[in-house]
C-alpha cells in the first residue's frame, strides 16, 4: 500500500472515533443535569350566585300559506321584543338564534302500516330568540308577559355569571395552595427537601349553562325561581425539583 492509501484509511477512521466520543459526552452530560422531581396536582373550587339568566323564547305560527304564517309570526315577535325592551332588556341582549319555515304535509298510512307524505296543507314559521336578563328579580314577570304576547313553544332558562374572572382567580389560588401542601407533606414523609418549581399547568372548568325549566305555553302566576350557585373549578399540575 502506498503512502496515499494509508493516509486515506486514517482519514476515514478518525471521524468515527470522534463521533463516538461526542455521543458519550452528551449522554454523560444528560445524566449529570437530570434531577429528581415530584409531580403533584391541586384543585380549587369557588361557588358564586348567578347574576344573569339566559332564556330561549320561541314564537311558532301556522297558516295555510307561507306568507300568512310569516305575517302572523312577525307580528307576535314584534310584540314580544317590544315587551322585553319595555322591561329594560337592552338591545345587545336580544338575539335571533333560529328562524325556520316548514311546509306541513297531509300524511296518510298505507295498507302496510307505513306513513306516506301527501300534498302540502299549510306552513309553519318558527322564530327563536336568545335573551340575556341581567335584572333577575324581573325574570318571572318577564316570562309571563312573553307567553301572553306570543311565545308558545317550549324554551329553556339557564343561569350564568356575566364576569366570573374573580371567582376563577380565587379558585386558582386555592388549587396552587393545595398542590404546594401536598408536595410538602410528601417530601417531609420521604425525608427530602422540596426544591424549585420546574413546570406548572392549569385546567379550568366553567359550569355549563344547565336548563332549569321548560316554559309552558299557558298563562300563569309569576313563576318562582331558585337560582342556586355556579361552581367554578381549577386544577393545577405542578412539578418540583427534589433536594437530597
Question: Can you characterise this structure?
Answer:
The structure is a single chain. By secondary structure, the protein is α+β, with helices and mostly antiparallel strands. It folds into 2 domains: 83 residues, 2-Layer Sandwich (Translation Initiation Factor IF3); 109 residues, Protein of unknown function (DUF541), domain 2 (Alpha-Beta Plaits, 2-Layer Sandwich). 36% of the residues lie in helices and 38% in strands. It has 4 helices and 8 strands. β3 and β4 form a beta hairpin.
Entry summary:
With 244 residues, the chain is α+β, with helices and mostly antiparallel strands.
Overall average residue pLDDT: 82
What fraction of the residues are assigned to beta strands by DSSP?
35-45%
Second rung of CATH, namely the architecture of the largest domain:
2-Layer Sandwich
Any idea how many domains?
A: 2
The separation of the N and C termini measures 60 Å
Helical amount: 25-40%
CATH C-level name of the largest domain? Alpha Beta
Number of strands: 8
Topology-level CATH name of the largest domain:
Alpha-Beta Plaits
- Net shape: elongated
Radius of gyration: 34 Å
Order of neighbouring strands in the sheet with most strands: 3-4-2-5-7
Oligomeric state as shown: single chain
SS-based class: alpha+beta
Task: Please mark out the parts with pLDDT under 50 across 5 or more consecutive residues, or reply none.
Answer: 2-23, 211-220
Q: Any chance you could write out the topology, listing elements then pairs?
A:
Layout: H1 3-33, E1 37-48, E2 52-63, H2 66-86, E3 94-109, E4 115-133, H3 139-149, E5 156-160, H4 165-189, E6 193-205, E7 213-214, E8 230-243
Antiparallel strand pairs: 1-8, 2-4, 2-5, 3-4, 5-7, 6-8
